């Protein structure tokens, strides 16, 4: 079962030296595998379809093969890789390395993924939630590289979360730490229902799914404008479409984004009061062009304004809120970083 795409080398193999680390980011669509050096810089990467229907054993074999392929890019074999990290969606039992019942992976229930990937790649594997891995990537070499602690919120189909404090991941006693999307932001009788089945969770208000649902409701209620016209002509409602029409001046589109920012700010204030991180980092599909785009700036400014209204002035001044910078590479780079962290701890001499 060979990998479907050739790994891409980002610098001459002759320029690569020192310890190297592989990070694997398992997604519902693709498996992303990164080879990084000791400073967190990408050396090579490899992406191939997950092919969920082929089952977890097939995927574990291909992940192991990818480690060898990336090592071969720089003239090494698998033994020339210092450590391997793996990030997957939850729920999972991180203590045993079991992928429990991932929502978009039918037939993968209770799969010992850490053990199987380890068997096929020839290394012990450091296992993490995918959002935690992405958070560590941003902490190590991304938007949070100058911060002592951070919370990453991944805004996509759902709302994921990762917490890093002084180079440590916060995963909780039961592998359910940093479930930031399930913070309660609305306790009213009319609270929206989260995909998990509970009312009032942040994910029901600030995810791409929630944004699309609210947009659909507005249009059904007779909202007019360029967004409504585009949907009438057959365009699908997505955050990209909404952001594009907000940039063009559509009032309904911009109002939808500002509503999302307000709800997100409520969740962020709870995180600030509970964890007091140096920074809140926003990643995923709903960053609207980041600071380089007027809509992205307006989205971030609205969050900041709402946060300042609901938290202590000193905390508001000292806590940075910014967008992530690693994009789709955050999970694989972060998984490699977590593998590196475990490797460093194992190889650091104990002193009396």
What would you call the shape? globular
The major β-sheet equals:
6 strands, mixed
What would the average pLDDT be, to the nearest integer? 94
Number of strands: 13
What's the CATH first level of the largest domain? Answer: Alpha Beta
- Residue fraction in strands: 15-25%
Spell the H/E element sequence: EEEEHEEEHEHEEEHHHHHEHHEH
Poorly predicted ranges: none
Q: What structural class do the secondary elements suggest?
A: alpha/beta
Q: N-to-C terminal Cα separation, in Å?
A: 49 Å
From the 3D structure, determine the CATH topology of the largest domain.
Nucleotidyltransferase, domain 5
**How many structurally independent domains?**
2
Topology readout:
Layout: E1 8-9, E2 20-26, E3 30-37, E4 42-49, H1 56-73, E5 83-88, E6 92-93, E7 98-99, H2 113-121, E8 125-129, H3 130-141, E9 149-155, E10 159-165, E11 168-169, H4 203-206, H5 208-220, H6 226-232, H7 239-247, H8 251-275, E12 279-284, H9 294-310, H10 313-318, E13 320-323, H11 330-347
Parallel strand pairs: 2-5, 5-8, 9-12, 12-13
Antiparallel strand pairs: 1-4, 2-3, 3-4, 6-7, 9-10, 10-11
Description:
- The chain has 352 residues and is of the alpha/beta class.
- It folds into two domains: 8-128 and 329-347, Nucleotidyltransferase, domain 5 (2-Layer Sandwich); 143-324, Nucleotidyltransferase, domain 5 (2-Layer Sandwich).
- The chain has eleven helices and 13 strands.
- The chain has a six-stranded mixed beta sheet with strand order 1-4-3-2-5-8. A five-stranded mixed beta sheet has the order 11-10-9-12-13, sandwiched between helices.
